[in-house]
Amino acid sequence: MERGKKRVVDSQLESVHLVRMNHLNSAGRLFGGQLMQWIDETAAMAAKRHAHRPIITASFNNLQFLRGAYPGDTVVLKAKIVYAGHTSMDVKVETYAETVTGEQFLINCAYATEVAVGEDGKPTIVPELIIETEEEQYEWDRSVLRRELRKKHG
To answer: Pfam families, alphabetically (predicted)?
Structure first.
């Protein structure tokens, strides 16, 4: 089967959500679990665009909550593939809270490892990732390092 190649920009996407009252924790901020769901969905959509296959989430790495989001804020999630192995992909998802005045603040940065699966439910090959910029190479190298650390530390 031909593996093919795709660029980072081919699968980039943004998803946008409005923080509503039912999304809040007891402190009146966006519930972390809700944000994790949005990150997971956004990462999977980017991976699906890259692989054109069904996707399962294998892991999250570096999920850091940097700042809160509040009722009425718009949450903007920006996802892109930063690494493609044989059957898996690393997706970087940056999350921003946008206030009513249009100011954006980074509230989260996460990396998800997504695996493409075939009709039999088993991992299947994904297109290679074409690296075109220094930033893309930097993100690729960081993903390789994260993978090595996961293997070393289990």
So the answer is: 4HBT (PF03061)
